[in-house]
Amino acid sequence: MTQVARPAPERLDSFTVPSQPGNERLALARVAGTAQGRGLSDARLERLKTAVAEATMNAIEHGNGNRPEIPVEVEVTLSGADLTVAISDQGGQTQPGDGAHEEPDLLKKLGGDQSPRGWGLFLIRNMVDAMDITTDGQRHTIWLTMRTTGAAHDEHV
User: Fold this and answer.
1) What does the alpha-carbon distance between residue 141 and residue 135 come to, in Å, rounded to a whole number?
2) What is the pTM of this model?
3) For residue 44, what is the DSSP state?
4) Contacting residues for 24 by C-beta, under 8 A, at least 6 apart
5) What angle, 0 to 180 degrees and rounded to 10, lies between the N-to-C axes of helices 42-58 and 120-127?
6) pLDDT digits (tens, 9 = 90+) for 123-142
7) What fold characterizes domain 10-147?
8) Within its chain, how far is the Cα of 50 from the centroid?
9) CA gap 65, 63 in Å, rounded
10) H-only helix segments in 59-114
11) Cα separation of 127 and 113, whole Å?
């Protein structure tokens, strides 16, 4: 069997933000600066920014319990045409929505049959080309991937 060699991911940036509400804006701004000029259209860059902000808010609130002494870790890598943002917290198994979370339904929410909350992972999943979630002990990571070239749905949301 022949395998095609994939380039090792290139780390473009790595940083932390304190787990305080509002710091998602710091994360999205820094990721946007790193992703700028890497082959994403303006519309796709805006989608990535939205996903990064939402994932960082989840990490701050649900993962780290708004405790500023526990940082949210953010890493941006490029592997071929894939730009990936990994956002990690210390929420471990306590993260909502890792698989058993009910898909949001607007009519159920308006009718009071679903909590008005719970749009985060749904929104993230629909903003990026791929979303994965991993948990290793207490470390919980959401992986957001955008293809930088050849994306057929470039301007659709």
Assistant:
1) 6
2) 0.80
3) H
4) 17, 52, 53, 54, 56, 57, 60
5) 150
6) 899 999 999 999 999 999 99
7) Heat Shock Protein 90 (3.30.565)
8) 9
9) 6
10) 106-110
11) 26
> What is the distance between the alpha carbons of residues 93 and 148, in angstroms, rounded to a whole number?
32
Which tokens sit at 22? 């509002």
* Domain ranges within the chain, ordered by starting residue: 10-147
Question: Which position has the token pair 């998602």?
Answer: 24
Question: What is the residue whose two structure tokens read 């749009």?
Answer: 119
- What would the two tokens of residue 63 be? 């993962």
The amino acid at residue 107 is L
CA nearest to 80, candidates 154, 132, 9: 9
The pair of three-digit structure tokens given for residue 87, joined into one six-digit string:
């956002």
Model confidence over 47-66: pLDDT tens digits? 999 999 999 999 999 999 99
List the structure tokens of 25.
Answer: 């804006």
Contact 85, 72 (CB under 8 A): no
First vs last Cα of the chain: how many Å apart? 39
